[in-house]
């Protein structure tokens, strides 16, 4: 993004803290649907966030 420019579009739903919570829950064998209910987000958002994190840093997820 260029300096002085505002970001256009919807704000991100998940921040680093929420991603950490989701990773922890899924690693503890909680279903993705149940993990999505706790921060009140959709399961498709969780699947997308986990897939993106896995592509960016597969070693961090232990998979």
Could you describe the 3D structure shown?
By secondary structure, this protein is mostly helical. Helix content is 51%, strand content 0%. The chain has helices at residues 16-27, 32-37, 43-56. It is elongated. The N and C termini lie far apart (32 Å). 6% of the residues are buried.
What's the SSE blueprint?
Blueprint: H1 16-27, H2 32-37, H3 43-56
Summarize the structure.
By secondary structure, the protein is mainly alpha-helical. The chain has helices at residues 16-27, 32-37, 43-56. It has one domain (16-61).
Radius of gyration: 14 Å
Q: Quick one: biggest sheet?
A: none
Mean pLDDT score, rounded?
82
Overall outline: elongated
Estimate the strand proportion: under 5%
Number of strands: 0
Essential attributes:
Homeodomain-like_sf, mainly alpha, 63 residues, 3 helices
């Amino acid at each position: 993004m260029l300096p002085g420019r505002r970001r256009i579009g919807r704000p991100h739903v998940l921040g680093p803290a929420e991603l950490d919570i989701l990773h922890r829950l899924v690693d503890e064998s909680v279903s993705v649907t149940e993990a999505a209910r706790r921060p009140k987000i959709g399961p498709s958002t969780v699947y997308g966030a986990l897939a993106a994190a896995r592509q960016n840093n597969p070693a961090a997820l232990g998979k």
